Amino acid sequence: MSLTIENLTPDNSFLVTKEGQIRKGDKITIIGKNANNTLSSITVKDVVFCERGDEEIIISKQYNKYFRTCMVVDGISWVKRVYIR
After folding, report:
1. What's the half-sphere exposure (Cβ side, CA atoms, 13 Å) at 52?
2. Does the reported pTM lie above 0.85?
3. CB-based contacts of 8: which residues, under 8 Å, 6+ apart?
4. What average pLDDT does range 16-44 have in this prediction?
5. Beta bridge partners of 82
6. Do residues 75 and 68 lie in contact, with contact meaning Cβ atoms separated by under 8 Å?
7. What's the CA angle centered on 55, arms 76 and 75, to 5 degrees?
8. Mean pLDDT over residues 31-40, rounded?
9. Coil, helix or strand for 67?
10. What CA–CA distance (Å, rounded) separates 12 from 85?
11. Which residues sit opposite 81 in a β-bridge?
């Protein structure tokens, strides 16, 4: 995991900036593009790779809730920012 002091937030969380930083079981905070999509203290259920090879972070298998890390980094996801706690 490539974490630097520049990515450190005041609460000692790290901003996710690329694929490969999030692991199954990690506690994360998701800042959504709107208030309804902001989630705190979520446990990553699984990390899988889709057909294109993109990393998908599964946060709820029951509700099919996930995000692709590359889309977060590119700014085109429902997720605005992700922090590893």
Report:
1. 7
2. no
3. 14
4. 91
5. 30
6. no
7. 15
8. 85
9. strand
10. 7
11. 31
